[in-house]
UniProtKB/TrEMBL annotation:
Pfam family, one: ELFV_dehydrog_N
Stretch forming the signal peptide: none
Similarity comment: Belongs to the Glu/Leu/Phe/Val dehydrogenases family.
Glutamate/phenylalanine/leucine/valine/L-tryptophan dehydrogenase C-terminal domain ranges (all copies): 194-423
PANTHER family: GLUTAMATE DEHYDROGENASE, GLUTAMATE DEHYDROGENASE 1, MITOCHONDRIAL
InterPro entries the record matches: Aminoacid_DH-like_N_sf (IPR046346), Glu/Leu/Phe/Val/Trp_DH (IPR006095), Glu/Leu/Phe/Val/Trp_DH_C (IPR006096), Glu/Leu/Phe/Val/Trp_DH_dimer (IPR006097), Glu/Leu/Phe/Val_DH_AS (IPR033524), Glu_DH (IPR014362), NAD(P)-bd_dom_sf (IPR036291), NAD_bind_Glu_DH (IPR033922)
Protein name (Swiss-Prot/TrEMBL): Glutamate dehydrogenase
Keywords, in A-Z order: Oxidoreductase
The organism's place on the tree of life at top rank: Bacteria
Length: 425
């Protein structure tokens, strides 16, 4: 018997909105930079979008056929790079938008890559270890012709981890008849993974947050911070800020939020959270996520899901700095409201670029066969994030645009130039 795993049509509509707002900002950025319309025509869509069907023999003996995608946005600068997510709501439009965002991030932190993204419509929380291995290997076989260490390098994303990367690397190495650690990043350290990869996103956010605080004349040691989301990004970020002396006054997960103006005990919360980033269920005195965003603080970091700051609540945000650790937490209308109110908004494509930066370090180490210490990784990440933040901050000031548009201008420029030099447009 063969069962189908359908794609979710409602989330396809939501993701069409994400895709069209991404395109709108890219169009404005290219116009500001003086590029002709044909450059926008090239960059508004991925160059390649592959849809695959992956049959997996499930534990009950039946075969289930899963749908997977791989989008490669633009490879003018170099091979494409981007994670693979396993989620029941994965859609083609979401994967396209995320591939474009990866191109922007690579441009912002000046990596020799274009952007890509992959996804499989599935619910890994309901699958056994053996079924997940079959699905991971099946995906690699299905996309093997368009990926590879010099073509397109995958990585982990939502609900995928270092074990899944290890299976994928092994499958690719079998097909290639060659040990290919540089095919994928986010691997376990023993298979060529990099030190510092797990905490890279949170470290990157911490670095740009400190730069933003400097610009506002705020010392992080005296700052009150709210972090929405307590998963990979939010929990490590809370820990790094807490260790830097900041007062983390609020955190949240999908079930609620904790707020204490005197500061929360982050080490205790980290100790008690589960692997899905849930901790608030243990407390009675919770508030809602909606309420948390409007509490008193100096710095607000949305690190959970998209569309959290909208035109409905943007006027009630008390923070003077908003740092987007999550992808797409602020709508276009809310971006305008926050900017008009003088709030410094550090956009997602800059703030969360630490992950792809350390993924790049992993690929470089695999290619050269020589490995760096965590201190070396931290130092290189620090330099790149500080330089990128200041480029975008200064561009925003000189071009009189908001930080999001400035980031898109910086992110798209190298790709547009490379496409022109190659004679594509
Ligand atoms: P995660 O799954 O580890 O954690 C997500 C957290 O958000 C959990 O605490 C969860 O309970 C909470 N959450 C879920 N739904 C929520 C809701 N509706 N309201 C409030 N909280 C909710 O995810 P993560 O890896 O920490 O990623 C968080 C965000 O950061 C995502 O937007 C992701 O795309 C972005 N991001 C993460 C990385 C990374 O390396 N982890 C890199 C770049 C961007």
């Amino acid at each position: 018997m063969v069962a189908e795993q359908p794609a979710d049509s409602n989330s396809n509509q939501e993701n069409m909105d994400v895709l069209s707002s991404t395109r709108t900002v890219i169009k404005t950025a290219l116009e500001k930079l003086g590029y002709p319309e044909e450059v926008y025509s090239l960059l508004k869509e991925p160059l390649r979008m592959m849809t695959v069907r992956i049959p997996v023999r499930m534990d009950d003996g039946n075969v289930k056929v899963f749908t997977g995608y791989r989008a490669q946005h633009n490879d003018a600068v170099g091979p494409t790079k981007g994670g693979i997510r396993f989620h029941p709501k994965v859609t083609e439009n979401e994967i396209k938008a995320l591939a474009i965002w990866m191109s922007l991030k690579a441009g912002i932190v000046d990596l020799p890559y274009g952007g890509a993204k992959g996804g499989i419509v599935c619910d890994p929380r309901e699958m056994s270890f053996r079924e997940l291995e079959g699905l991971s290997r099946g995906y690699v076989r299905a996309v093997s012709q368009i990926v590879g260490p010099t073509k397109d390098i995958p990585a982990p994303d939502v609900f995928t981890n270092s074990q899944i990367m290890a299976w994928m690397m092994d499958e690719y190495s079998r097909i290639d008849e060659f040990n290919s650690p540089g095919f994928i990043t986010g691997k376990p350290i023993v298979l060529g993974g990099s030190h510092g990869r797990e905490t890279a996103t949170a470290k990157g956010v911490t670095i740009v947050l400190k730069e933003a605080a400097n610009k506002k004349g705020l010392n992080v040691k005296d700052a009150r911070v709210i972090v929405q989301g307590f998963g990979n990004a939010g929990s490590y970020l809370s820990k790094f800020l807490h260790d830097s002396g900041a007062k983390v006054v609020g955190i949240s997960d999908a079930y609620g939020a904790l707020y204490d103006p005197k500061g929360l005990d982050i080490d205790y919360l980290l100790d008690r959270r589960d692997s899905f980033g849930t901790v608030t269920k243990l407390f009675n005195n919770t508030i809602t996520n909606k309420e948390l965003l409007e509490q008193e603080c100096d710095i607000l970091v949305p690190a959970a899901v998209e569309n959290q700051i909208t035109k409905e609540n943007a006027n009630n945000i008390k923070a003077s700095i908003v740092v987007e650790a999550a992808n797409g937490p602020t709508t276009m209308e809310a971006t305008k409201i926050l900017t008009d109110r003088g709030i410094l908004l550090v956009p997602d494509v800059l703030a969360s670029a630490g992950g792809v930066t350390v993924s790049y370090f992993e690929w470089v180490q695999n290619n050269q066969g020589y490995y760096w210490s965590e201190q070396e990784i931290d130092q290189k990440l620090n330099e790149i994030m500080i330089k990128s933040f200041n480029t975008i901050y200064n561009t925003a000031k000189t071009r009189r645009v908001d930080m999001r548009l400035s980031a898109y201008m910086v992110g798209v420029r190298k790709m547009a130039e490379a496409s022109r030099f190659r004679g594509w447009v």
